[in-house]
Amino acid sequence: MQLARLQARAMGYPDLRIIVIEHPLGGIEPDEVLAKVPDAAAAVSRLMGVD
User: Fold this and answer.
1) pTM, full prediction
2) What is the domain range of residue 30?
3) Helix, strand or coil for residue 12?
4) How many domains does the chain divide into?
5) Main-chain phi, psi angles of 15, to 5 degrees
6) How far apart, in whole angstroms, are the C-alpha atoms of residue 16 and residue 5?
7) Phi-psi region of 18 (alpha: psi -120 to 50; beta: other; left: phi over 0)
């Protein structure tokens, strides 16, 4: 998260909303990626204020 915030600031987006998705993501089977979707979607919803 700290690296993401630093990168966002460096690229001119200091207030960029960031979510964290449990790793790994690369190199895993599609069904394993799909299993992570509910948590990621919930995080996006929280950031958007639509719990």
Assistant:
1) 0.70
2) 2-48
3) coil
4) 1
5) -105, 15
6) 8
7) beta
